[in-house]
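Section 5.1 Outputs to date
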Amino acid sequence: MPRRITFSLWTLAFTLVLMTLLATGFGALRLPVNLLWNGTDDALRQIWFTIRLPRVLLALVIGGSLALAGCVMQGLFRNPLADPGLLGISSGAACAVALWVVLPITLPALLMLYAPMLAAFIGALAATLVIFLLSQQRDSSLSRLLLVGIAINALCGAAVGVLSWVSNDAQLRQLSLWGMGSLGAAQWSTLLAATSLMIPTVLIIWRLASALNLLQLGDEEAHYLGVDVRIVQRILLLCSALLVASAVAVSGVIGFIGLVVPHLMRMWLGSDHRAVIPGSVLSGAFLLLIADTIARTVVSPAEMPVGLLTSLLGAPWFLWLIFRRGGQNG
């Protein structure tokens, strides 16, 4: 990669580390890092280690996962408007998790930790397959894909509404807060579960970055250049569905990160996925970390769902993209 891109990625990584250290000190209770290490208050250290640090690290994992999923979807569909939320993939995962919440099944402790992610993966994969099969048709278009995404979102939203109607008070509150997206339930166990799925998935996608570059030329051209198109497409679809599933199962529905971040990275770093993939992971983690820090502090001591903040950022960006593409096509 060119030196400029390498320098940009290292700068982004350094900024992310610095922001991570600063973010652990912000919240309803200020916890400056120097006070923690120089002071003698064990209670503050316990709050920092068991509550604040897992939440900050989970924001990094979830933000990076959502941004990378969006990056893969945009690369596969060769369209900058492809996004797990807009195409209904997040809604499919959300519907499956809602079903798990309302109809719980008793499982061993380790399986219980991963059960919501498995449910979300099944829902996300089902929606992903529908979208992908549609995109392979000759008469497919962006407008048709978005319409199908709207239909899937509406159908899954109705299903979640029915499940909310039949749920008890505790389940209803859980579904309501979870539907708006929040990292308030962050624990070391959920962080471990999400990270154990994200890291190998990121490595798999990174290894397929060159193949994803060739897919931008078209399926036939990529085949002649030595890419097993169907296998690569299936692996990338499974990986993106797994990333969305792990994020939705842990934090609920957090929209537009998968749309905004990869598009910005392509504008900044170019179209080479060997640069766009790490850039999307780092920038997605940075964006969600900033949004969650604001959500924890802007209405302190209360807390705003972080999904609301990302939607406030992403919806205007989406409208700008639509009008920009419309102007170019006109």
